[in-house]
Amino acid sequence: MSNTAATFSGNTDYNLSEISKVDIPTVPKDAILIKSVAFAANPTDWKHLVYGMGPKGSRLGSDVSGIVEEVGSEVKGFAKGDFVSNFMRGNFNSINGAFQEYVIINPVTTIKYDKSAIKTEALPVGTSPIGKIDTFEGAASVTLGLTTVSLSFAHHLKPSFDKADNADKYILIWGGATATGFLAIQVAKLVYGLKVIATASKKHHETLKSIGADYLVDYNDKDAVEQIKSIGGAEIKYALDTVSSTETFQSLYDATSESKDVRLDNLLFLTEKDINADPNRSVYIGDTLAYVVVGVDVNFAGRMVYSTPELVKDYTHFWYEVLPSYIPQLVHSNLKVLAPGFESVNEALSLLRENKVSGEKIVFRRV
């Protein structure tokens, strides 16, 4: 049985990927082997390569969906023939990578779907609208985002699961139209019953309202922070920055200044040292990195990010005990469907690198 993968060409211009014949590893006892069907591309896929985190020959890709071929002896809850999607840290070595024909995956970042709910037909090339997760392309598009959101809510933001207790509490999601923000809005509303304030450009407002955002603010407005404060004030108890620049995190911090017990989170290890913070204000600030949910510390761009037993416990409880019942209610964002085949990897990474997609997730099939 042969295996084909997209691997790093060693070229950091725009031909990052090349198609290679690679070995199929023996399935570890705590892992799963799948035959891939569809993939989703993420900014991290090109950033690892351009910023020197992956050597030539690294296997590419972070998001994949497919069909289970073999299950490790210690893995429970999965069987040959299951339809699944998985997120992994690819793009950094010659073993891990989602853009392969046969992929070894970790059950801790894997979603199993009701087979009767997933259509096996390929989506046509072009734009596919928001919809239920009922295709392999849609399944591939959500797993990194849901891993990130699960860790953020379960371990860093920690809202109560009591929807009655949350009825008058707000969460601010900066970057509601990002892939992570799109899913965070839904989780905040469906799982926790929070009131959701989201920032996005005006063209995305109606879409985000349709998936649960209660209030939308255009981040381009000069008074965006004041608008947010006038909506939620001291009742903004949680805030997640899915864009995570120093500018957006400063705005998030400022917009929650009236709350005495707010919990903030971001995706780029930003702290009060990175912004103009009030020395008299005590705020919890999280630093979500999805790679650590598998229980392994990660050296990410020269910074050690640690996986603690508490983090793994919080995440796995949410992932296994809470999230599955909500999967049928979630919708994926607009999909930009590329032509099938690993030849589309360079196109996908170039579109992301040049910031040519907005409010869409890039997906493509293996064949």
Automatic annotation (TrEMBL):
Report the SUPFAM superfamilies cross-referenced here. GroES-like, NAD(P)-binding Rossmann-fold domains
Any one Pfam family here would be ADH_N
Record-linked InterPro entries: ADH-like_C (IPR013149), ADH-like_N (IPR013154), ER (IPR020843), GroES-like_sf (IPR011032), NAD(P)-bd_dom_sf (IPR036291), Trans-enoyl_RdTase-like (IPR047122)
Q: Which residues form a coiled coil?
A: none
The record's listing under SMART domains reads:
PKS_ER (SM00829)
Residues in domain Enoyl reductase (ER)? 17-364
Q: What is this protein called?
A: Enoyl reductase (ER) domain-containing protein
Instruction: Give the organism, scientific name.
Output: [Candida] anglica
